Amino acid sequence: MRPSSAAWICLLLRIANYTCYSYHVGRSDLYVGRAPRRMTKLSYENGKPHIDAGVVNYFKQIREEFPFFKRENCPAYFDSAATTQKPACVIGKLTQFYSSENANVHRGIYKMSLDATRSYEQVRKTIKNFINCEREDEIIFTSGTTHGLNLICSMLMERVIKRRQDEIHLTYLEHHSNIVPWQEQVKRKKKGKIKYIPLKSTGYIHIKRLRKRINRNTKVVSISHVSNVLGNIQKLTAIIKAVKEKNKNAIVIVDAAQSFAHIRYDLRRMEANNCCPDVLIASGHKFCAPLGCGFMYLKNTLTCSYKFKPLLYGSNMITTVGKYESEFESPPQLFESGTQNIAGVISMGVAINFLERIDQRLLCRYEMFLYDMLVYHLGQHLQRGLVQLPGGVSESGGSSGGSGGSRPTDPCRLYIHNSRRGGGKKVPILPLWSDQFSSFDLVTFLDFKNVCIRSGHHCASLLLKEFLRIPDCARVSLFFYNTPEEVQFLAEQIASIARMLSGMNRGGVK
Q: Where does the source fall among the domains of life (predicted)?
């Protein structure tokens, strides 16, 4: 039975409303305190960092937007590189969707489905504006960075890597999700070869040596903008320029999982300066969005040139299905097979709006203030027992330093890798390690004190093995919702527990 004329009119009105719909989150949903007018810089007195009290109060107001920190006996949370806590507006949107807006997106023509589709698709526009890319269809929703890296790896191995001598350049800094997919694809398809970009002893990419290694066989350069262990911010524009100047067709992939919450990207400006990545991937839960959602920016010119095939086939990416072949949607739907994390994606848009309202310059200064305060107080408590962790990889891959070098004679030794000493830029992540006790013991005893930090290889085994030359480490990762009081307490507890464990394990239990 065909729909009546009245039904068609109602449907057309809804479609018209769909095309001009503007998703808006009310100001009350996204309240962030007013930033101080006086933009103070970090200052130091005898090595101790100082920042204006107005800046501290500004971020304490923002902290009030996170329900987690209002709970009774709230832990001191320093594991934000693993996942961030969520503001009330994000939790509220997630609850609101499942309480009163839950419907599947696309194809549904009833009002609630159309409303869900509008909200879902509006997030593409939100991300597009936030990173200032050219087109909304360059934004592909994923379940996170691991999904995005596997997706782009599969597409490039299918369309770009054709010969055994085609090169894929990675670094020892990478998360496993930017190493293992390439290894497996190269092994299974018997084409392409992986090369590792040299690092300086500070943990930054050696750009001069990178430039020498790029050649006409270089097809892919895939790097993390920020290491999830060291926290170093790589000189992304200089790296991309070096690659593109030597081989303009080389595809540059940026893993932005650890950088997206701390750094603002302006892709159009980068494109104008010939230093724009071809692919940029991020995870929502690393920037205050729910778990299980993320996005991949895939440059439109790349999609048009290579006609990429999807990783998964099924619903949502089909136009017609025949007995023996099918026709598919255009990107981005082509790469979004199956039912997506609709509530997560919509809430991710709210999280981005929340971040956008925070003063970026203050955020960077405040986070570095917290980081410098942590290093300062650790130094005050441990004195010469706090040692810069040696490390570094030469061009040949050998170590230019290691844990077997000269060590202080202090009864307690705690090593850190602090690239701030050399003037390097970083996000507030600090790895800790000792040759006198296990990092797992340190983290366990901190947990008894209601303090949360992480230990292990942090899904960065090559970095620990080949660069730092250690089996594992503890990691402190700060965020703008942490307070100076928490950081000072953390330093006191780390120093106290380190002394206790060193005394228990004198003689070097590793």
A: Eukaryota
Round to the nearest angstrom and report the end-to-end CA distance of the chain. 76
Q: Pick from 498, 431, 500, 442: which is nearest to 468 by CA? A: 431
Q: Which two tokens stand for residue 322?
A: 């025949």
CB atoms closer than 10 angstroms to residue 471: 15
**Cα distance between residue 277 and residue 258, in whole Å:** 16
**Distance in angstroms (rounded) separating the CA atoms of residues 308 and 420:** 41
**113 within 8 A of 105, measured Cβ to Cβ:** yes
The ranges of the chain annotated as CATH 3.40.640.10 are 88-355
Backbone angles phi, psi at 271, to 5 degrees: -65, -40
Pick the closest to residue 355 from 401, 274, 306, 288 (CA basis). Answer: 288
Residue (of 267, 293, 278) closest to 349 by Cα position: 293
Dist. CA 446–CA 443, nearest whole Å:
5
Q: Class of 88-355 per CATH?
A: alpha beta
- Dihedral in degrees, nearest 10, Cα atoms 46, 48, 54, 55: 130
Which of 178, 183, 188 is CA-nearest to residue 221?
A: 178
Enumerate the CATH 3.90.1150.10 domain ranges in the chain, comma separated: 360-392+409-504
In this prediction the pTM is: 0.88
Question: CATH number of the domain at 360-392+409-504, please?
Answer: 3.90.1150.10
Angle at 27 between CA 115 and CA 54, to 5 degrees: 145
Q: From first to last of its 510 residues, what are the pLDDT tens digits of the chain? A: 455 555 554 544 444 443 332 223 233 333 445 555 555 678 888 889 999 999 999 999 999 999 999 999 999 999 999 999 999 999 999 999 999 999 999 988 999 999 999 999 999 999 999 999 999 999 999 999 999 999 999 999 999 999 999 999 999 999 999 999 999 999 999 999 999 999 998 899 999 999 999 999 999 999 999 999 999 999 999 999 999 999 999 999 999 999 999 999 999 999 999 999 999 999 999 999 999 999 999 999 999 998 998 888 887 778 888 899 888 888 898 888 888 999 999 999 999 999 999 999 999 999 999 999 999 999 999 988 898 764 333 333 333 333 333 444 568 899 999 888 767 899 999 999 999 999 999 999 999 999 999 999 999 999 999 999 999 999 999 999 999 999 999 999 999 999 999 988 765 444
